[in-house]
Amino acid sequence: MNKIDFDPAQLTFVKSSHSDGERACVEVARIPGGLGVAVRDSKDPDVRPQIYTAQEWAAFVAGVRAGEFDL
């Protein structure tokens, strides 16, 4: 992962629409300036999120859409 500087307090995290609100879920936030995406565990929001560049995130989403992670 590349180093991307940002203030985590300025991020707006969004929980998956598939979450029932009670289970642990992944939350995602766009980093300002289109630099990348921050990902965190909803049950532990105070832990610094994992950071992915825009290119890394695009590759992951493309893989999901292509079924690369289907079990």
TrEMBL record:
Pfam families: DUF397
Sequence ranges assigned to domain DUF397 in this UniProt record: 12-65
Domain of life: Bacteria
InterPro entries according to UniProt: DUF397 (IPR007278)
Protein's name according to its UniProt entry: DUF397 domain-containing protein
Organism: Frankia canadensis
